[in-house]
Amino acid sequence: VYLKKIVINGFKSFGLRRNVIPLEKGYVVITGPNGGGKSNVIDAIKFALGELSAQALRASRLSDLVYEGNNGQRANLASVSVVLDNSERALPIDKEEVTISRKLLPNGESLYQINGKTVSRSDILTLLATCNIRPSSVNIITQGAVLGIAEMSPEEMRKLLDEVA
Amino acid sequence: VYLKKIVINGFKSFGLRRNVIPLEKGYVVITGPNGGGKSNVIDAIKFALGELSAQALRASRLSDLVYEGNNGQRANLASVSVVLDNSERALPIDKEEVTISRKLLPNGESLYQINGKTVSRSDILTLLATCNIRPSSVNIITQGAVLGIAEMSPEEMRKLLDEVA
Amino acid sequence: KLAVFMRTFERVSREAGYYFNKLTGGEAWLELADPERPLESGVEMVVRFVGKPPRSSRGISGGEKSVSAVALLMGLQGLTPADFYIFDEVDAHMDVAYTRNLAALFKEMSRKTQIITVSLKDIMGEHADQLIGVYSQHGESRIVITKLGETIESKAG
Amino acid sequence: KLAVFMRTFERVSREAGYYFNKLTGGEAWLELADPERPLESGVEMVVRFVGKPPRSSRGISGGEKSVSAVALLMGLQGLTPADFYIFDEVDAHMDVAYTRNLAALFKEMSRKTQIITVSLKDIMGEHADQLIGVYSQHGESRIVITKLGETIESKAG
Ligand SMILES: Nc1ncnc2c1ncn2[C@@H]1O[C@H](COP(=O)(O)OP(=O)(O)OP(=O)(O)O)[C@@H](O)[C@H]1O
Ligand SMILES: Nc1ncnc2c1ncn2[C@@H]1O[C@H](COP(=O)(O)OP(=O)(O)OP(=O)(O)O)[C@@H](O)[C@H]1O
Ligand SMILES: [Mg+2]
Ligand SMILES: [Mg+2]
């Protein structure tokens, strides 16, 4: 279940156009100048996977996730879709690809969809848990977090070990 | 009052030999591989200027500051001297240079000296305060601290401003 | 319960040590802070860099912490294998030698697991299957995708 | 009391803005979180990067935070001028463009104030008056000093 494509529109620094990012299966490197939007791509993935905490997406409030451009231009809603490869049917859905989408509506509510069908957030989390995918699991390391992992106290490291046991 | 020379011996990764680091007045760059001892040089300066907190020197306890080499080799005491240029007599001592030294003795006590004369820690702090030098002031930025400065809350930034007013 | 924990502990210790050795040439392992009470005890990662005595991962340098953290994360992977990893500038404090080792490790692991990493260093992208450039233009982010030599401008849908 | 604070506030705001502009070409200033109560109010730094709308320094990227923090620190200098500055890898998250601007700023400031900086990047050392190499050998740190072309091995006294 690798990430095949991400589609971002109106989320953080990604403006009103549909930004399509196809991803290869192997070794992918994202690069570019400071403030370009690299970490926002990672925030977009976490957002689509169901991340609820604005702080974990580096925003003060969820409403800060909606694109704000120059001259007061603002998107109506923030939308991210993540297309997962399902050729090995690891996810219990009989399709080659599974698309998880989330839209942050102007009223602050989130709309979740699997392959275009509206579902609840817990439907998404349950589906992804079958493949060990969670919005804030050990396989997504945000910028600056790496030093903190080595500085974990013995109690914290124990907790981490118990989580994966 | 710039830093002219640092002499380190038995402090953190600096072993039993006397390590002498002459410093130029202008733009000095310290470089080298990971784990070489670059940040320990900065810890050594803070230590000599009177830093009391082991955590601020990236150690769990003060006794961790004493050099521990391979095969259980250990220094007896950790010693750092900082030679300050005083050609403009900014420090109220009539000498071209002023040497501040600190030794961490085996009993955990610290021995402070100014130009070889034993003094108290508060004598050192009072002398240095005449030139705005404190062990943990805004002009010494430790590794990893820079992101935290931009992430200060409005209350923290206010406190910083009040401190320098 | 104790047997399950000890099996996890041993396994992560061994795997973290394997990846640490790949990254630095040294050794690493996990220790129980209080071996008398294994069910409640905290856990420490001990690392021994080449030419140095063993130390807890909390008392080492910035770059040394970065490689140790990556080794631990990879070690945890054995238990809960993930199909993809995302790393955001984990190489920021690493020197050229460790960065090169990291890029080689990521490349090797990418045969089995998708590895997505953000980096500002050319070394990290030298053997990438895909290079994604993200930059800001007129106040919004744009994407340029390069795959092994061809450049495709992200199609604005 | 209010007058003293407002004078400090204005001054740091102006100076931080000057250094921010030198580093990025954009603008920066300080704002009172609660202008009605200046004596208790918190303070925010607002930054406007070239081509982008103004934002609080808390909501920007890693590299953008690094340049903003350096600009603020330099802005504070006007009030309590220090004779020396020490920076430990403040350029870790900066890209090549900002790192180059930082090195140029440090070089310029070093005419009046001693600047000591730790960096793993060659760009930072290109115009240094002195380059100090620190490396580990047989489990202890050693020093090599280069001054504008000559190399002197640190004398073990
Ligand atoms: N809601 C929003 N609307 C518009 N721009 C936003 C929004 N939220 C954040 N930004 C901007 O997004 C930009 C890019 O941030 P991001 O952290 O992704 O950069 P980056 O490429 O990771 O940079 P770095 O290399 O410095 O880490 C920042 O300049 C930030 O101010
Ligand atoms: N008391 C001690 N005795 C011996 N070595 C020590 C002691 N305390 C710390 N060290 C070691 O000092 C080494 C150098 O640490 P330091 O943080 O100065 O490295 P650095 O050059 O800043 O590296 P980086 O580029 O990764 O930040 C570390 O490997 C650490 O384990
Ligand atoms: Mg980033
Ligand atoms: Mg360091």
Number of strands of chain C: 8
Shape of chain A: globular
- Characterize the overall form of chain C: elongated
Low-confidence stretches of chain C: none
Short description:
The complex is a heterotetramer, with two copies of chain A (165 residues) and two copies of chain C (157 residues). Chain A is of the alpha+beta class and 165 residues long.
Descriptive labels:
heterotetramer; A: alpha+beta; 6-stranded antiparallel sheet; 22% helix; 25% strand; C: alpha+beta; 3-stranded antiparallel sheet; 8 strands; binds magnesium ion
Structure notes:
Chain A has about 160 residues and is α+β, with helices and mostly antiparallel strands. Chain A has four helices and eight strands, in the order βββαββββαβαα. Chain A has a six-stranded antiparallel beta sheet with strand order 2-1-4-5-6-7. The two termini of chain A are about 20 Å apart. The mean pLDDT of chain A is about 95. Helix content of chain C is about 35%, strand content about 30%. In chain C, about 45% of the residues are buried. Chain C has helices spanning about 1-25, 60-75, 95-110, 120-125, and strands at about 25-30, 45-50, 55, 85-90, 115-120, 130-135, 140-145, 150-155. The radius of gyration of chain C is 19 Å and the shape is elongated. Chain C is built from four helices and eight strands; from the N terminus they run αβββαβαβαβββ. In chain C, helix 1 (about 1-25) crosses helix 2. The longest helix of chain C is centred in the N-terminal third of the chain and has 23 residues, at about 1-25. A three-stranded antiparallel beta sheet of chain C has the order 1-2-3. Chain C has about 160 residues and is α+β, with helices and mostly antiparallel strands. The chains are: A alpha+beta (about 160), C alpha+beta (about 160). At the B-D interface, strand 2, strand 3, helix 1, strand 8 and helix 3 of B face helix 1, strand 2, helix 2, strand 4 and strand 5 of D. Strand 3 of chain A pairs parallel with strand 5 (about 115-120) of chain C, so a sheet runs across the interface. The complex binds adenosine-5'-triphosphate (2 copies) and magnesium ion (2 copies). One magnesium ion (MG) binds near residues 38, 39 and 143 of chain A.
